[in-house]
């Protein structure tokens, strides 16, 4: 919901922030979510309202982007607004989910995460667009854990910021020297916001790159070369109800460790391997007639490319992306059904993706398409033109990395009995939600400090079928379980 209420404008949104803001206002992308599972380490202590308010208040004080609103978000001149007073009661909620088992609870938690993705932000000129919900199961025996959902407007933060938020929240929960808690926080002085991405990163673009990119996007269609269209489920359709579905896949720490070791041996990365496993599932579940071609997109964090002196710990949007097209011979080999060939092809595909990501990382921030966003005069018109068009990618895979914390989870606490920390984190689940004008399937990858790897599938209901998602999830789980038992992905 937009607002033109008067308020102190802090700075105009940068191009990628405006890209996000326009999507949110149009209702075609609503929030990013990172959920972490918090355990009491040394007792049955719980995160109650007082404990959370105390820790969260200090995080908000340290993070300027958590205390701003958005002015004129229905225009291409949107700006961040100074919020002088923030009531935590408007941002924090607690929920107990009745359930009979941990599996049932995890399913209900995924449904709840999808619900948060579907909500619109209200009064964003006067209220920072983020929220926190503490969720726990109602079981016969105490669970000893609580999940904290952190949902946020993408103009404020990116996925990596969601991980950084939880890392800082855990530190503050374990900070016993400052237990005071207040519900209403006041900020009479405007915050110093971090620079927008285009100011914080020293982008450079060759003339040829600028001309080629803008021509491919805006040149007359009859004069542009027609690129093949990858398989992408249903085309972009703004009339489809915005309903996000979430399906997490948990890979135990021991299995994830084996996969990482094998990735190093094969000179690839976990991101590259998961792309290859997704391609293997797609290729074997979709025929050559209906899906002759696939393309994926991978967000890339720009934090390593910040200007000297910039604070990489601040929550903000700092992201680029890489499109990967898969050679027809790889897809045909995966469809061949020959086990030795399949395993070889999975590793070669993983190496291909890793090589492309490494090459892109070595050239950044030169010739990066996000640096040309400033040439788009009207983002609302840009997205409206996509309604009814085919999607350009088959899936998106975003990896926000490993949760970093001095105190890990219950298993780690047992190894360090001298620790006086109160809480640890044992699971991290990251989702982008339904992307109406983007890839039909999203995969959010995140690793907890104890090694648990969670791959969370997200999709817009009816854009791909539930059976297709179930097949993809079952394939990914079968691949990693088989590798754990045999050292191979295929039988």
From TrEMBL:
Coiled coil: none annotated. Keywords: Transferase. It comes from the Eukaryota. One of its GO terms (molecular function) is N-acetyltransferase activity. The keyword Transmembrane does not apply. It holds the Pfam family AATase. InterPro entries: Alcohol_O-acetyltransferase, Atf2/Sli1-like, CAT-like_dom_sf. The keyword Transferase applies. This is Alcohol acetyltransferase. It comes from Moelleriella libera RCEF 2490.
């Amino acid at each position: 919901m937009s607002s033109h209420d008067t308020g102190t404008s802090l700075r105009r949104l940068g191009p990628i922030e405006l890209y996000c803001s326009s999507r949110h206002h149009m209702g075609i992308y609503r929030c990013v979510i990172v959920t972490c599972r918090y355990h009491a380490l040394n007792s049955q202590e719980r995160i109650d309202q007082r404990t959370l308010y105390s820790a969260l208040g200090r995080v908000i004080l340290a993070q300027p982007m958590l205390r701003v609103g958005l002015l004129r978000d229905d225009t291409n001149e949107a700006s961040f607004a100074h919020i002088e007073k923030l009531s935590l009661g408007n941002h924090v909620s607690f929920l107990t989910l009745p359930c009979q088992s941990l599996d049932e609870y995890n399913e209900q938690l995924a449904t709840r995460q999808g619900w948060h993705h579907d909500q619109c932000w209200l009064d964003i000129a006067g209220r920072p667009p983020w929220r926190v919900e503490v969720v726990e199961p109602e079981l016969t025996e105490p669970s000893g854990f609580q999940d904290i959902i952190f949902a946020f407007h993408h103009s404020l933060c990116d996925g990596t910021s969601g991980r950084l938020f939880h890392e800082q929240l855990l530190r503050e929960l374990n900070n016993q020297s400052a237990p005071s808690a207040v519900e209403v926080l006041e900020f009479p002085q405007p915050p110093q916001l971090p620079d927008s991405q285009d100011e914080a990163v020293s982008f450079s673009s060759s003339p040829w790159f600028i001309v080629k990119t803008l021509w491919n996007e805006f040149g007359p269609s009859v004069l542009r070369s027609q690129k093949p269209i990858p398989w992408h489920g249903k085309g972009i359709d703004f009339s489809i109800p915005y309903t996000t579905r979430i399906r997490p896949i948990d890979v135990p720490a021991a299995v994830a460790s084996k996969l990482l070791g094998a990735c190093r041996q094969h000179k690839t990365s976990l991101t590259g391997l998961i792309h290859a496993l997704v391609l293997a599932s797609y290729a074997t579940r979709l025929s050559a007639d209906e899906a002759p071609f696939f393309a994926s997109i991978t967000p890339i964090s720009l934090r390593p490319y910040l200007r000297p002196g910039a604070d990489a710990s601040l929550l903000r949007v700092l992201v680029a992306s890489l499109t990967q097209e898969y050679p027809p011979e790889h897809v045909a080999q995966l469809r061949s059904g020959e086990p030795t060939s399949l395993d070889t092809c999975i590793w070669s595909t993983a190496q291909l993706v890793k090589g492309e990501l490494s090459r892109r990382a070595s050239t950044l921030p030169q010739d990066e398409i996000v640096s040309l966003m400033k040439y788009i005069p009207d983002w609302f018109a840009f997205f409206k033109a996509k309604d009814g068009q085919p999607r350009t990618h088959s899936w998106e895979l975003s990896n926000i990395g490993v949760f970093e914390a001095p105190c890990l989870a219950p298993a780690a606490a047992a190894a360090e009995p001298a620790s006086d920390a109160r809480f640890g984190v044992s699971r991290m689940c990251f989702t982008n939600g339904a992307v109406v004008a983007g890839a039909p399937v999203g995969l959010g990858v995140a690793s907890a400090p104890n090694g648990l790897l969670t791959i969370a599938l997200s999709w817009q209901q009816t854009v791909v079928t539930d059976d297709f998602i179930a097949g993809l999830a079952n394939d990914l789980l079968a691949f990693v379980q088989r590798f754990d038992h045999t050292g191979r992905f295929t039988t």
